[in-house]
Amino acid sequence: YVQGVVTDGQFLNALINTAVFVVAAVSLEFLLGFGLALLLWEKFPGRGIFRAVLLTPMFIAPVAVGLMFRFIFNSQMGVMPELLGFVGLGDLGWFTDPTLAMLVIVLGDVWQWTPYMVILLLAGLQALPSEPYEAARIDGASSFEQFYEITLPLMRPVIAATLIMRIIDAS
């Protein structure tokens, strides 16, 4: 029975679609999440409000997010086809073309779960010791050198745990 499942075309297609979805969604969520976490790590006016607004998508039920993106990309009354019509693209067939349908699904997932990545990565950043950064500043290290030589190595366990949890959840 297992051999029949593995050689079934529909099973292989589902496996490939799942892999494409997980790689695309988790990669984008990680890049956006780490960038936003680095931004929120710095102190600036309105940081608390920005954090609250940023976390909002995570509290919406996945079914509601799916319906919301379905309406946004709807060919008859959606906002996206209307906006693309202004630049001459019109309706691209978001749900009839498998590639575009995958893109819409990935965008919806990225919108909803990037805040999860931000929370975990920001917690990791805030737990980093300040001493290595002070020593690097005294030694004249640039911001990029501090990031590459201190932040990334110290964040590896947090990054690995975050990616593993999100890959399992997205699969």
Structural class: mainly alpha
Pattern of helices and strands: HHHHHHHH
- Number of DSSP helical runs: 8
The overall pLDDT average reads: 91
Terminal CA distance reads 23 Å
Tell me, briefly, the overall form: globular
> Which residue ranges are poorly predicted, with pLDDT under 50 across at least 5 consecutive positions?
none
Q: Using DSSP, what is the number of strands?
A: 0
**Approximately how much beta-strand content do the residues carry?**
under 5%
- Largest sheet, if any? none
Helix content: over 70%
Radius of gyration: 20 Å
Description:
With 171 residues, the chain is mainly alpha-helical. It is 77% helix and 0% strand. It contains eight helices and no strands. It has helices at 2-7, 9-41, 47-55, 62-72, 79-86, 98-126, 131-138, 143-170. α2 runs antiparallel to α8 (143-170) and α4 (62-72) packs across α6 (98-126). The protein is globular. The model has no long low-confidence stretch (mean pLDDT 91).
Write the layout of secondary structure elements.
Blueprint: H1 2-7, H2 9-41, H3 47-55, H4 62-72, H5 79-86, H6 98-126, H7 131-138, H8 143-170
Helix pairs in contact: 2-6, 2-8, 4-6, 6-8
Characterize this entry briefly.
This protein has about 170 residues and is mostly helical. It has helices at about 1-5, 10-40, 45-55, 60-70, 80-85, 100-125, 130-140, 145-170.
Any key phrases for this structure?
single chain, about 170 residues, mainly alpha, about 0% strand
